[in-house]
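Re: the pair you flagged

First of the two:
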Amino acid sequence: MLFAIHALDRAGALPTRLANYDAHKAFLSDTSRFGVKIVMSGPLVSDDGQTMIGSLFLIEAPGRSEVEAFNHADPFAEAGIWEKVTITGFLRRQG
């Protein structure tokens, strides 16, 4: 099953995001211990097209519990960067 993770940063989180960016990227390099696969991911940006304001993931996983465990273990989550995280099932129709 596919899941979308939509995570919006808290106000003023950009310096903390940048300080944890390498740890976040290393974490994403091997998701096998959670039983999930990243189909697509990247930062959400403001209307200027550059300033990072959150994260978006499309995850393939057996169920929601695996996605939640993966998300909670992310260094960005542990650093308190995200103010709001929504995890939603997704049905692929195109692409």
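Second of the two:
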Amino acid sequence: MQAVLDTIIDNKQRDTRLMWALCVASVVVYINLYLMQGMLPLLAEHFAVSGSQATLILSVTSFSLAFSLLIYAVVSDRIGRHTPIVVSLWLLALSNLLLIWVEDFNALVYVRFLQGILLAAVPAIAMAYFKEQLSPSTMLKAAGIYIMANSIGGIAGRLLGGMMSQFLSWQESMWLLFLVTLAGVALTSYLLPSVADAKVMSGAQTSAPSVSKRARLLQDFYGFSHHLTDPQMRFAYAIGGITFMMMVNQFSFIQLHLMAAPYEWSRFQATLIFLCYSSGTVASYFTAKWLAKFGQHRLYQWSWCLMLLGSLLTLFDTTATICIGFLMTACGFFLTHSCCNSFVAMRASRDRAKATSLYLCCYYLGAALGGPYLMLFWHKAEWQGVVMGSLTLLALIALSITRLRYHQTKMSPIAV
């Protein structure tokens, strides 16, 4: 009896360590991903480029991250979840040393392209890792806390970048980034269960030595195509991608609006709008409880209404209505993202990392495409135009939610 109790306690401790390890890793990843967004003025000044050229750094990182997610899905399904996460994080910390000594803008672009590849490991693997090692109820809780960690990392990265831009030089900023990343990576490595334990639990799908390279490639292609042929997965991917396409770029354009008359906020003050992410942080934490109580479709409906009302509220164009509107939009977005993330991980009974990486690939491609799309509306009518463009995206989100619901209730489930 004592042995059974000891085993239960050990399993619970391992689950807790896994959850917090991946949450710390998530904070590290999103600080590194979004730090440059708050540093664009310093970046442009230090490398003597225009503000529009400086934004290329954000696009380069997002694109390399998006497509690298698919590679990590294949690698982690073959060799396990633990090693790709640990190796990529330590390489990320070392790559920050390169940022200290980059001498021109082109070199910075290359380093950020490389970092996008390294940043992809944790988001590509985390949800599959949770699904394989945690019970369904614990997995939902872990997913909510993990999304909350994403939000915290996004807020911290942008605000830290804004403070660096105002108070530190480029080299000082990059040294601080290196030290923050190093501390986070060391803590993640300490908390993450051992390689042997992780491999036993993960059941990673390694191919037999006798299988040819061609056969392995076909297996990988089948793993991706298997999820893409599932209409429920496709609509979950669409919901997440279009929602992020709208939300993250709204936050970019509202900064331009707040720096113009009549507000005329400073560049650092404009980054404070990212504190509105805090409503999403709270919503992420409670998502598992609300999913169990109200169901996925009800949460989708509520989150869509929050994003619609929040966007419209900003048209009143006061500081209060803008802040309240973005609090509502962020809350709605993170509810949607948590629902999609959990749904994809729970629905995939095989090739889980491929399923979650496909979702996140659509998610980050949405972010990259949303900038040029909403820029067209910004040039026509500035912030009012951005809201109008967002309403079109909200219509597509509503259609995707409706179609997902249809396939869940009217069609037989597809085993994935």
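The chain has 17 helices and no strands.

-B.
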